Amino acid sequence: MMAKPKQLKVTLTKSRHGRLKSHKACVAGLGLRKIRQSVTVPDTPENRGMINKVSYLVSVEEV
C-alpha cells in the first residue's frame, strides 16, 4: 500500500501587490488569491520551491 503524500497548509499573510512578476506567479500557482486565504497542497519539490521563493508572503504548516 502506498503512503499518502504529506499535505501542507499554506496561508497568504501579506499582499501580492507590487511584488515581482515571478513571485506573483508562485502565489497564483499555489492557488492563493486573497490575504488570509489558506489552501492545502501536496508536499512536493515543486510546491516546496514555490513556497521557498515567496516565504516572506506566506505561512506554512504541515497537516
Structure characterization notes:
The chain has 63 residues and is α+β, with helices and mostly antiparallel strands. 29% of the residues lie in helices and 25% in strands. The protein has a three-stranded antiparallel beta sheet, with no helix packed on it. The chain is elongated, with a radius of gyration of 12 Å.
Features:
Ribosomal Protein L30, Chain: A; 63 residues; 29% helix; single chain; alpha+beta; three-stranded antiparallel beta sheet
Describe the structure concisely.
The chain has helices spanning 21-29, 45-53; strands at 7-12, 38-42, 58-62. The chain has 63 residues and is an alpha+beta fold.
Span of the ends, CA to CA: 21 Å
Structural class: alpha+beta
How many β-strand stretches?
3
Q: Which stretches of 5+ consecutive residues score pLDDT under 50?
A: none
Overall form: elongated
Report the portion of residues in β strands: 25-35%
Helix content: 25-40%
Side by side, the strands of the main sheet go 2-1-3
Mean pLDDT: 94
Radius of gyration: 12 Å
CATH superfamily: Ribosomal protein L30/L7
Second-tier CATH architecture: 2-Layer Sandwich
- Give the H and E element order: EHEHE
Count of separate structural domains: 1
- The CATH class label is Alpha Beta
CATH T-level fold name:
Ribosomal Protein L30, Chain: A
